[in-house]
């Protein structure tokens, strides 16, 4: 928008410049015949061949300078030499031997005469005229003020669009609580209200979906318990073992769904306490030391504590390290974990050299129940809830979580948490 205003300003200046140029050219026309008459008198007065002394006298008494180029002599009354060859002279339509033009604020008239060439220089010095300079300055300031006012007005009118833009970005990040402030009652105000209503409906729909999932999971617990009890009376054998494994799997899924729902539901209520993050990660990694490809933890400052909910942060690192190990090959290089401090933030990266994630899958990775490679994850036993849970916990702490991955090379997860101690 600023660029449009600037271009408009430049265009107005060019238009004004052209207008004044044309005006000046036309304004001079009625005086042309008078000047012509006067200069002819001057030529006659100088004599033939022209007398320099006489020319000097005229130059001293008036603001007329005379440059003469003749077959025998050439002279000029001007105190300083001028770049006369740079002057663009235009022939007069009714006087072919006369040409005139302007250069550096001076008017020039060239007369091709039998005695030689005369170039008369009339120094109006009008460009140095303080009154004219004031007018120029005033025009410039007026245009600048008008443009500044227009810029402010357009910004004011477009304010709802900027607010909507922040709203769309916030909703894109998954913040469905965001409400765009309604500042106007015109079309843009209506659009803002419609946007807020849409987010409200989306929120209700998602909440209903989550509630349904919670209710179904909850309701499944009792029949599952009954099935487990009934199974105790079944004779031992392969069928019993298969049924027990299936029941265990369903139980596991239900407890993950209910855990996730609980954390989603009361994520505002974190049990924050000074936590030694390095020690916490060390504890989690210890369980994976004997599991190939292994985990290497690059610890920097183990004495530093941060205000975190240790139980929930432990769930985050357990899930992420579990994934990094699970989706690595047995002969991959070990998973690397490192901590770095950045101003008021603490960054933790977990980098594996495993199978990686396809770019098409990366955009869905935070959605609950999303699994990038369904056949493989059935084997590894995941339900696609881990990453969505990690995101909820990290964001509840005011932090961010990002994932980058190259298929066949590996995956890196970066967690940034506010470094409040
Ligand atoms: P799951 O329990 O299936 O592992 P997650 O939510 O933790 O669920 O992960 C979702 C999907 O993201 C996984 O099914 C897997 O396909 C992919 N994924 C997660 N972490 C990694 C990783 N480190 N390397 C490769 N794929 C991964």
Structural class: alpha+beta
Mean pLDDT: 86
CATH architecture of the largest domain: 2-Layer Sandwich
Order of helices and strands: HHEEEEEEHHHHEHEEHEEHHHEE
Can you say what the CATH homologous superfamily of the largest domain is? Histidine kinase-like ATPase, C-terminal domain
Tally of discrete structural domains: 3
Give the count of helical stretches.
11
Flag low-confidence runs. Answer: none
Beta content: 15-25%
Distance between the termini: 44 Å
Main β-sheet: number of strands, strand sense, barrel status?
6 strands, antiparallel
Cofactors, ions and other ligands in the entry: adenosine-5'-diphosphate
User: Helical residue percent?
Assistant: 40-55%
Shape: elongated
Order of strands in the sheet with most strands: 2-1-6-5-4-3
| CATH topology grouping of the largest domain | Heat Shock Protein 90
Q: Compute the gyration radius: what is it?
A: 43 Å
CATH class designation of the largest domain: Alpha Beta
Give a description of the structure:
The chain has 421 residues and is an alpha+beta fold. It has three domains: 2-123, no CATH class; 197-265, Signal transduction histidine kinase, dimerisation/phosphotransfer (DHp) domain (Helix Hairpins), CATH 1.10.287; 268-418, 2-Layer Sandwich (Heat Shock Protein 90). 52% of the residues lie in helices and 18% in strands. A hairpin with a 6-residue loop joins strand 3 (90-91) and strand 4. Helix 5 packs antiparallel against helix 6. The two termini are 44 Å apart. The mean pLDDT is 86. It binds adenosine-5'-diphosphate (ADP). The site of adenosine-5'-diphosphate has 23 residues, from helix 8 and helix 11.
């Amino acid at each position: 928008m600023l660029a449009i205003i600037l271009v408009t300003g430049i265009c107005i200046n060019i238009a004004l410049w052209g207008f004044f140029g044309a005006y000046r050219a036309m304004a001079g026309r009625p005086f042309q015949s008078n000047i012509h008459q006067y200069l002819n008198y001057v030529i006659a007065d100088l004599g033939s061949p022209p007398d320099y002394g006489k020319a000097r006298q005229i130059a001293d008494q008036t603001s007329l300078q005379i440059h003469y180029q003749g077959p025998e002599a050439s002279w000029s009354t001007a105190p300083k030499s001028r770049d006369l060859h740079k002057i663009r002279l235009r022939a007069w339509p009714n006087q072919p031997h006369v040409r005139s033009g302007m250069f550096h604020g001076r008017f020039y008239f060239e007369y091709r005469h039998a005695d030689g060439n005369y170039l008369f220089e009339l120094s109006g010095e009008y460009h140095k005229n303080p009154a004219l300079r004031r007018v120029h300055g005033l025009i410039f300031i007026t245009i600048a003020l008008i443009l500044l006012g227009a810029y402010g007005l357009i910004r004011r009118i477009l304010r709802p669009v900027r607010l909507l833009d922040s709203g769309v970005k916030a909703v894109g990040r998954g913040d469905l609580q965001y409400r765009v402030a309604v500042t106007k009652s015109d079309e843009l105000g209506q659009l803002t209200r419609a946007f807020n209503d849409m987010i409200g409906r989306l929120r209700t729909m998602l909440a209903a979906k989550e509630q349904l999932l919670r209710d179904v999971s909850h309701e499944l617990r009792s029949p599952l318990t009954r099935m487990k009890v009934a199974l105790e009376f079944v004779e031992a054998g392969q069928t019993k073992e298969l049924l027990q494994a299936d029941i265990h799997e369903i139980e596991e899924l239900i407890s993950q769904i209910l855990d996730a729902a609980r954390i989603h539901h009361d994520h505002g209520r974190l049990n924050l306490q000074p936590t030694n993050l390095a020690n916490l990660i060390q504890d989690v990694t210890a369980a994976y030391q004997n599991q190939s490809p292994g985990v290497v933890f690059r610890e920097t400052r183990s004495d530093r504590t941060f205000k975190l909910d240790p139980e929930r942060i432990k769930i985050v690192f357990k899930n992420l390290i579990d994934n990094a190990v699970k989706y690595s090959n047995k002969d991959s290089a070990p998973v690397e974990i490192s901590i770095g401090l950045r101003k008021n933030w603490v960054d933790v990266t977990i980098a594996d050299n495993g199978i990686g994630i396809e770019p098409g899958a990366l955009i869905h990775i935070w959605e609950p129940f999303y699994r990038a490679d369904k056949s493989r994850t059935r084997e590894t036993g995941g339900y696609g809830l881990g990453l969505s849970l990690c995101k909820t916990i990290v964001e509840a702490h005011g932090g961010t979580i990002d994932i980058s991955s190259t298929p066949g090379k590996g995956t890196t997860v970066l967690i940034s948490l506010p470094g409040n101690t």
